Each structure stands twice: as C-alpha cells, then as structure tokens.
Amino acid sequence: MEQKNQGKKPQVVREKCYEQRKFPLPLFDSLEYINLNEENLAQRTFVNYDDFKHALAFLKSYKGSVGTFNSYRRDTERLLQWCANISHKSLKELKRDHIEDFIRFCQNPPQSWIGFKKAPRFIEKEEKRIPNPEWRPFVVTVSKAAHRKGKRPDLKSFEFSHSSVKELFAILSTFYNYLLQEEYVFMNPVALIRQKSKFIRKQHGPLKIRRLSELQWQYVIKTAKSMAEASPDPHERILFIMSCLYSMYLRISELAASPRWAPTMNHFYRDSEGNWWFTTVGKGNKQRQIAVSNAMLEALKRWRKHLGLSSLPSPGDNSFLLSKVKGKGPITSSTYIRKIVQVCFDEAIIRLHEDNLHEEAESLLEATVHWLRHTGISDDVKRRPREHVRDDAGHSSSAITDKYIDIELRERHKTARNKPLVTDV
Questions:
Q1: Global pTM?
Q2: Superfamily for domain range 214-413
Q3: Average pLDDT over residues 119-141
Q4: What are the residue boundaries of the structural domains of the chain, listed by start?
C-alpha cells in the first residue's frame, strides 16, 4: 500500500503545482521524444484522457515533417488546454459556438498564458523529461530592430496575427476531420463556421513580400565574400550558406539535417546532358529537384575547395553538405544557421552605415534568414519563366509564385509618384 502511494506522489505534486501557477503545462514533447508521451498518458490528468490519446495519435501521423508536426502540435495543444482549463468540455462536446469562443480566446489569452520567449516544452531532470515551468502556450515578441534599441516585450502588446488565425482554422479543421475518421466525434464544428471573415480580415491587393532590396543584397553578399577572404575558416561557411539560401531559395529546414533528411554532397548531381541539379526535401516531406545556376556551381566548387575536396561531387560522395565545426555529423540546429546568417547581416549593416546608407541599414535590422529565400525568388521571377521558379521553389501553384511579381506595383507607384497636392488653375 505504501509503495502504491509513493508511485502516485509525483502526480499529486504536479497537480498542486499547476493549481498554484494558474497556467497550463505542456502536453506534447518534441518529435524525437513523442513516444515518451504515449508511455506517460496517465500523467496528463488535467486533460481528458481520451482527448489526449486521440490528439497524440493525430500528431504522430505527421512524424514525417518536423515543421508540420510543430504547427499541428502548437494548435492542438492549445485546444486541449482550453478544453480542460477554460471550457471544461471534451472534444466530443464542442459545438460551433465553442470553437468560435476558442478562437476569440487565442486572440486575447490571459496574461498568465503568455510568455516572453519560446521556451522548450520539456526539459531533462534526473534523466527524465519533465514539463518546463517557463513554457507558455503563447509568446509575445518585439521586432529585431526594436530589441536592439532596448525595447522589451510587453504582455499587453500581444497580438494573434491574421495569418495565425487562418492557420488555426486550417489545423483545427484537419484535426476534427481526423477525429471523424476515427469515429471519436460525429461532426466537424469548424466546418460549420460560415462567417470566418469576422475573425480574418480580408487582404486587399497582394501581400508585401519580406525581402532584401537589391542594394541590401549586394552589400550582404559582398560582405560575406570579404569575410571569407579575410578569415576562410569561420566564414567560407557563411558564404556558402548565403549562396544556397539565395540562389536555390532553400528554407532553413532544407539546409539543417533532420531525422527525415540530411543534405549531402551528392544531392548535387549532373544529368545526362551535363546540367547540374540539387535534390532536397521541403515542406510536406516533398522531394524536389532545383536547377543549379553557374554561379551556385561556382559557390559549391569554392566550398569544396575550402574543405579539401575535389572540385565537384561524385555520385558516391555522401559526405554532409554542412558538417559540424566541432564533433561529427551534419548541422542539425536551425538556430545555429540563423546565428551564422545574422553575423553576416550585422556586418553588412555596419558597412551600410559607414557609407551613409542609414535607411537601408535600419530596414536590414528586421531581416531574417527566410528573407533570403524571398529575395532569391523575387529576383529570379523578373528574368525566368514563373513556372520554372515555381518548381525550383517548391510552390504548390503558380498563384503563390505570382505574389513575388511586383512589376505591376512598380508601374502603379510610378504613375502616382508625381501626383500634385494642388493643381494649378
């Protein structure tokens, strides 16, 4: 009897700890530890057991794509926490009105549910995975430029963006369709919401593509080259990464190795006509071939020369495209790649200021790694057939690629540039 009570003690402590904090604990661990969640189903006592079990099975069906898994985990987790702590209903009981209430909740969550940083959900303690007390379901952030100027996140300034609402609708609908197929629920309440426009503001005209200007890109790539020439060992890596992100429109997840994909040298290959291609696996675990330009091929040769390899890879060269600086194996951390790119951005910002190009320098403060993909696509769609850019970028339709075509916008602004405020009579 005493042993039985001892076995339950950690669970009781956890429940008291939760009541004192008044914020939800994380439910689902990262992809590599997701099986541990299944082993500890009974410990998730603050959510409906069957809800948790079905949500876990739903998430495990997306193990092939880390990005998709993370997005689905985020919103599925929020829904289960809201069910357990706010509505006190199970997934089976939710109707259309409840889903609408949940969406409004996400748009304005209590401050105790909002964090100041993206903390890991679980941490290691005494060789066990335990919930991280610093984690929150929502996070408030400030822009990179504002952070550099000393501004810190304010809970009152939290905003759930319109793109987040749209994604939330899509994920919840997919989740309920899965529950329907499993016969756990008998309707999809998300599909019954006819007036989604009351939650999502309609966009008039094309969305602004977050990209570098032509001048900023020239400063960034010239900065990368000069850094590599001055100190090859740490900075040739920067130059090659920048070349890949811009020339081949790679996402950061397509450069970093993951359990499903690790880019190697022989993913660059030559076809029977002598053309070079690069194979990658992108969003949705979709494989695609990217046409390699002469400039990108030269960047590859330079990188391989720095590594002491032959000029171009052979079909049998399965060495990693980006190996760790310390230790063995490929780079797996996207955070590490972001830091590398930011080093280059920071140096380019300094050079822009030195040349009195202060506005360009200030706007470059906001740039992220993904802007390089946008920049490469935007520059190429001006000179290549959009269908070719679409396929290299891995876009599901030409409509997505069309967002990068800004010729009409330039012409529209050109006709408005010299409009007078007062017309001479």
A1: 0.67
A2: Intergrase catalytic core (1.10.443.10)
A3: 88
A4: 22-198, 214-413
